[in-house]
Amino acid sequence: MVMHVQLVSPERTVYEADATLVVARTSDGEIGFQSGHVPFVGTLLPSVVRLVLDGGGEQRIAVHSGFVEIADDHLTLLCDIAELAENIDAPRARDALARAEAAMAADPGNVDATAALRRAKARLRAVGADA
To answer: Measuring CA to CA, which residue among 48, 40, 1 is closest to residue 20?
Structure first.
């Protein structure tokens, strides 16, 4: 059995597919969703959402904040910033990681650097690079 998945930004639907499994990291922990899952709404943490697509294959999406909602075999990811793995520039993400680490070394309490570090790590994990 499958569920319909939509990745939605404020401007448009970014991605749509049918999936047999979606794994997301929320404020409640890492959660796997399959067809028939009870209704759920949760806050997404900066991480990689993994979709096992109907018919095979996998889609990885770096999310930086947002919400996940599932009801009636329809899962919606509502994100201000989300990037499909194939659209991520890995060298640029590595550079962003290095800049964020340097900023945090200079000022460990730097909230912006902490957020930039999380975004860079999510991007690198989405493309399968170490982060």
So the answer is: 1
The dihedrals phi and psi of 86, each to the nearest 5 degrees, come to -70, -10
Based on the structure, what is the number of domains in the chain? 2
**Among the three residues 68, 85, 102, which one is the final residue of a domain in this structure?**
85
Separation in Å, CA 74 to CA 1, 34, 77, 95, 102: 12, 10, 10, 37, 41
User: Does residue 66 fall inside a structural domain?
Assistant: yes
Domain range for 77 is 3-85
Per-residue buried b or exposed e for 79-91, using 16+ beta carbons within 10 Å of the residue's own CB? beebbebeebeee
Q: Where are the alpha helices (DSSP H) in the chain?
A: 90-106, 111-126
**pLDDT (tens digit per residue) in 90-128:** 999 999 999 999 999 999 999 999 999 999 999 999 998
Determine the Cα–Cα distance for residues 123 and 76; give it in Å rounded to an integer.
20
In the chain, which residues have pLDDT < 50? none
Question: In this structure, are 81 and 18 located in the same domain?
Answer: yes
